[in-house]
Amino acid sequence: MLYALNSNNIKIEPCPNEKGFCPGCGEALRAKALTSRHVAPHWAHKAGDCDPWYEPETGRHREWKERFPVECREVSMGPHRADVRMRNGLILELQHSSISSEEIEDRERFYGDMIWLLDARDWALRAIDNQGYPRSAHAMEWSHLEEFNFLWLWPKRTWSVSQRHVVLDLGSFLVQVLDWRWGKDVWARGKAYGLEFLR
Fold first, then answer.
1. Pick from 41, 28, 37, 39: nearest CA to 1
2. Integer Rg of the chain from CA
3. In angstroms, rounded to a whole number, what is the distance separating the alpha carbons of residues 181 and 113?
4. Which of 73, 103, 154, 198 is the most exposed place for a label (fewest CB within 10 A)?
5. Cα–Cα distance, 69 to 87 (Å, whole number)
6. pTM of the entire predicted model
7. pLDDT tens digit string along 132-147?
8. Cβ(54)–Cβ(2) under 8 Å?
9. Whole-angstrom Cα distance, residue 176 to residue 147?
10. Which of 184, 182, 7, 2 is nearest to 75 (CA)?
């Protein structure tokens, strides 16, 4: 967790001489990795996280959370902690690691109106034209707001159950998935946006 609550119910980042409490369960938390060069400082439960959906986070998670105001980050909602709850109430869930179809469905039922932001920087995606031929031999290169078709080779099939908005983070830009058809590979239609799209 990047944030705990102090005794005045204010969100605080990990620091050595401050007591932090979990906004979900109220348990006292420990500040960890305060001087690490490899792990970002964070708060940790003493006996495992109270959110059953908790997953270790990547640096990309932290970068995305920091694009939003502090009050929108790590928002407790019952037994769970949303990565980001935007000011319009829409939930943004950041996903890097593999996730089961059942958990995708559970989170979508729980959060309702939400967006998945999937770390797709190492996915095998290939831009194609309307006849299915490759558009670019080595890279996906699109203009802002351009709609295009692409293939997802070796797809993570658990995502075929998703009924919510899916946005792919390709590093330097985002792709909103408008439609996809699941087969051996996945044919998809998307729209390119700059990273500011989800602010």
1. 41
2. 19
3. 22
4. 154
5. 9
6. 0.86
7. 666 654 456 666 677 8
8. no
9. 9
10. 2
Question: Around Cβ 146, how many Cβ atoms within 10 Å?
Answer: 11
Residue type for position 74 = E
- Tens of pLDDT, residue by residue over 5-50, are 999 999 999 988 889 999 999 999 999 889 888 888 899 998 888 9
Q: Return d(Cα 58, Cα 119) in angstroms, integer.
A: 10
Q: Which tokens go with 140? A: 């996906």
Q: Which residue type is seen at 70?
A: V
Reduced 3-state DSSP string for the chain: CCCEECCCCCEECCCCCCCEECCCCCCEEEEECCCCCCCCCEEECCCCCCCCCCCCCCHHHHHHHCCCCHHHEEEEECCEEEEEECCCCCEEEEECCCCCHHHHHHHHHHHCCEEEEEECCCCEEEEECCCCCECCCCCCCCCCCCEEEEEEECCCHHHHHCCCEEEEECCCCEEEEEEEEECCCEEEEEEEECHHHHC
Token digits for 70? 């502090």
Other C-beta atoms within 10 Å of 161: how many? 13
- Stronger pLDDT, 55 or 81, i.e. the higher one: 81
Q: Is residue 41 within 8 Å of residue 14, measured between CB atoms?
A: yes
Q: Tell me, what amino acid is at 63?
A: E
Tokens of 126: 């290939």
